[in-house]
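#struct-help
A.M.: can someone run this one for me? Single chain, 145 residues.
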Amino acid sequence: MKALIQRVSQASVVVSNHTVGTIDHGLLVLVGVEKGDDEARADKLLHKLLRYRVFSDADGKMNLNVQQAEGGLLLVSQFTLAADTGRGLRPSFSSAAPPAEGERLFHYLVEQASKAWPKIATGEFGADMQVSLINDGPVTFLLET
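D.P.: on it. Structure tokens below:
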């Protein structure tokens, strides 16, 4: 699994002119599910998401995780993260999980995240989404499991 995380001061997802997910201070997480991913990889990713230290402490150093910073997680499925861009000028999605498997694992991740932390919001799997954010820093990292 891959997750592109961005530290944000706010972020939201709109589908068909309706806001389906929003957070203030926290992490926008774009999630890509690849072939061969399973619950164990989702659990490992969630562990990293909740514990990755990207928020500043009192000394201005990145020593706090999203829970310590009392931030939200906005989880958004994005199969294009699984693209192979190594050759040519058009991405290949042959390494992406099939849609049904991607949806199942994304929902598993959301379910586990909701059990671990109350400040969870999501986009809508497979929908045409408009994602808005104010990147704080900017701070962006690619996590892989």
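A.M.: thanks! The CA atoms of residues 48 and 143 lie 8 Å apart.
D.P.: also worth noting: The domain at 2-138 is CATH 3.50.80.10 (D-tyrosyl-trna(Tyr) Deacylase; Chain: A;).
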